[in-house]
Amino acid sequence: MMKTFKKAPATGARRLDVLQVMRAVAAVMIVALHADVNWQFTLFPLRALRLGGGVDLFFVISGFVIVYASRPYFAAPGGRSAFLLRRFLRIVPLYWFVLTVRLAMAAVATIIGAKAFPPLQSIVTSYLFIPYDSMGYGDAYPFPLIDLGWTLNYEMFFYLVFAIFIFLPLERAVFTTAGVLLVAVLIGSSIDLALPFSFWFQPIILEFVAGMLIATLFLRGVRLPPLLGLATALCGLAIWMLTDLSSIGFQCNPGCYSYSRLLVFGGGAILLMAAATLTRNISLPRFAQPLAKLGDSSYALYLLHPFIFRGFKTVLSGVTFPPEWSNLVYLVIVVSTVAIAHAFHVFVETPANLWLRDRLITSPRKVAVT
């Protein structure tokens, strides 16, 4: 008989700082990847492409968090609307803010004759998280006007599928959602679909499934012995760093969502997440605890870093550094970008989100991870 869970209490849930550290690591990986495009790091081989695995780590974390943080909503009256409202408040305001800033910049560029203003269809689909080729990469890469938003188009699709089945008890909802997403991938692999389904039904969405299943194991009390947990983490890192990408036809230009990505970047992320959450008696050393705070601002860092980079490029456009300074410049820009995004999270994003929650959620329920 399938084991189910009683509805978890809405308050007092344990904060998983290890998840926040993983979020921070994933965001910094992506920032480091994109910084290398503009300010090359040469001190040691950065293997820049592999830093793209930060996106896959985000997806596995998201699958875990959605199950863990949604415990009060499974099989509960009003659970679906409460879940969707919280996801909306977590994802949409900052993304819409960034997208609006992007459109304002596009309007200025249009006024001075530098670029044409984006067409209405690109604007609408970008705001609504609908895959559409707004960047001119072709239907295989239907990026919104904020090109990083391609990941959010997957996130929102995952949330909608998950919300359909949240009326079920926790494990039934997880396994049903997993089954639907697996079928979607099989259909996408077998049939030539049109957008948006050709984008949504890609193997990369199974990374959310892996995160959900790890969360289910965590809630069941499954734990790995410390040595096995360490070995699992090392295997994940080895898959990321040592796999010969060319031998499996791995291509990411400008993005990819295929089985090869699921195998390499997804496989590494899944093993690292399993090690981080399931290893028995794992705890953060004191020196790593500030990283948990950075995990809180990982979403702001992800969305804002291209704008911060643009500011640095503008400021430094007339400055020529000696070649031996290139690594220092790179590190200063990455660290400064993390600091600026964290300050934005503390002084702008958090107060704005609290203001919205106070007005849209009449009976707020505190959860550990959102």
Molecular structure report:
The chain has 370 residues and is mainly α. The chain has one domain. 63% of the residues lie in helices and 0% in strands. It contains 13 helices and no strands. It has helices at 17-38, 53-69, 79-111, 120-127, 150-164, 170-190, 197-200, 206-220, 226-242, 259-278, 289-296, 298-315, 326-360. Helix 1 packs across helix 13 and helix 12 (298-315) packs across helix 13. The longest helix is centred in the last third of the chain and has 35 residues, at 326-360. The chain is globular, with a radius of gyration of 21 Å. The protein starts with 16 loop residues before the first helix and ends in a 10-residue tail after the last helix. Residues 1-13 and 363-368 have low confidence and may be disordered.
What's a concise summary of this model?
This protein is an all-alpha fold and 370 residues long. The protein has helices at residues 17-38, 53-69, 79-111, 120-127, 150-164, 170-190, 197-200, 206-220, 226-242, 259-278, 289-296, 298-315, 326-360.
